[in-house]
Design goal:
alpha+beta, 2 domains, 13% strand
C-alpha cells in the first residue's frame, strides 16, 4: 500500500505495546500454555513470522528478550523447521520502495467503444423470449467437502433429563457478585442433586511439582484442553505450598452423576493424573470444601499447606 509515515509510526507503537504484553506473559513461561508446544504457539509463531523476517530488526526487538527467546525456541523445533525451513531474523527493517509500488499498480486501459445496436427494440424482444438460464450450482471447495464427510458431534449429555439448575446463571453470580454472601447461597439454593454431582480432585504426583508457576501452568493447561466442557462443568482449583513443596486439588461440579471425562476422547488428556472422589452434597464435608475452594479461604485442614493461588474453570 502507499506509504504513510504517520500510519507507519502508529503501527510501530501499537506493535511495541502488544509485544510488551506478550513479553511479560513469557517472563516465567517457556511456551504460551503449559510446558510443551501447543496450538497457541504454532498460531502465534505464524502470525509473527513475517514481522521477525522483515520488520523486527535487532534494535527494535532487543527489549523483548522473552518473546525473542520463545520465538527462536519454537522455530528451531524439528516440526517447525520441517514446515517453515530456515528462518533468518531481520537484519534491517524493510523500507517502502516507491518504484516497486508503482510497477505493481495495474495500468488503466481505454475501454473499447461499443458498437451501436441498429435495432435495440428488436434485440430486447429476443432477450425476453430467451428462457432464463438455470443458476449454476455452487461447487463445494475441498474444505466444505471434507467437513461434510465428518460425522456430526453428538452431545455427550443428550441422554440426561433436563435440569432446573442453570450453570451459567451461577457462573454469572460467581463472577460478578461476592462469593460468600451471594454466589454460594445461590449455588446451594438452586443446585440440582439429581442432575448434577460434586467431586473432589487431588493431583496424584505432588512430588513432581517443582516451581509454582509451572504448577499453575499445569492447572491452566488442563482447563484449556477441556474448553468444550465449560457449559456442563465448573471447577475451582487451588495450589498449596511453595516451590518444590506443593499440591494441587479442587472442587468440580459436573452434569450427571458420573465422571464426565470418559464421555469424550477430547476430555481424557489430564484427568487420570488426579484422584477423584464423589462428594455427598448434603454432607458437612462437602459444604465445607465447596465454601473453602469457591472462596479460596478457610482452614483447608485436609491439605496441611498454606493456600498459594487458585484457578477457576467456568
Amino acid at each position: 500500500m502507499q506509504y504513510n509515515k504517520q500510519a507507519t509510526e502508529h503501527a510501530k507503537e501499537e506493535l511495541k505495546k502488544v509485544l510488551a504484553i506478550l513479553d511479560e506473559h513469557l517472563k516465567t513461561r517457556t511456551f504460551l500454555v503449559g510446558e510443551r508446544v501447543t496450538l497457541a504457539d504454532i498460531t502465534l509463531v505464524c502470525s509473527l513470522l513475517w514481522l521477525y523476517k522483515q520488520v523486527l530488526e535487532p534494535s527494535f526487538r532487543q527489549s523483548f528478550t522473552n518473546t525473542n527467546r520463545w520465538f527462536v525456541t519454537c522455530i528451531n523445533q524439528p516440526q517447525f523447521k520441517a514446515v517453515l525451513g530456515q528462518v533468518n531474523l531481520c537484519d534491517k527493517m524493510a523500507q517502502f520502495d516507491a518504484k516497486k509500488f508503482a510497477d505493481m499498480q495495474p495500468r488503466k486501459e481505454k475501454a473499447p467503444k461499443e458498437a451501436k445496436d441498429p435495432k435495440p427494440q428488436e434485440k430486447k424482444k429476443k432477450e425476453e423470449k430467451k428462457p432464463a438460464a438455470a443458476a449454476p450450482e455452487e461447487e463445494q471447495d475441498a474444505t466444505d467437502e471434507v467437513l461434510s464427510l465428518e460425522p456430526k458431534t453428538q452431545d455427550p449429555f443428550a441422554h440426561l433429563p433436563k435440569s432446573p439448575f442453570i450453570l451459567d446463571e451461577f457462573k454469572r453470580k460467581y463472577s460478578n457478585e461476592d462469593t460468600l454472601s451471594v454466589a454460594l447461597p445461590y449455588f446451594w439454593e438452586h443446585f440440582d442433586r439429581e442432575g448434577w454431582s460434586i467431586w473432589y480432585a487431588e493431583y496424584k504426583f505432588p512430588t513432581e511439582l517443582t516451581q509454582v508457576f509451572m504448577s499453575c501452568n499445569l492447572m491452566g493447561g488442563m482447563f484449556q484442553r477441556l474448553d468444550r466442557l465449560r457449559k456442563n462443568a465448573f471447577a475451582s482449583t487451588a495450589l498449596f505450598g511453595g516451590n518444590n513443596d506443593s499440591s494441587i486439588s479442587g472442587i468440580w461440579v459436573f452434569r450427571g452423576q458420573e465422571l464426565v471425562f470418559p464421555l469424550s476422547p477430547d476430555w481424557q488428556v489430564d484427568f487420570e493424573s488426579y484422584n477423584w472422589r464423589k462428594l455427598d452434597p448434603d454432607s458437612e464435608e462437602c459444604c465445607t470444601m465447596v465454601k473453602e475452594y469457591f472462596a479460596w479461604e478457610g482452614q483447608f485442614t485436609h491439605i496441611g499447606k498454606p493456600f498459594s493461588q487458585g484457578k477457576v474453570f467456568k
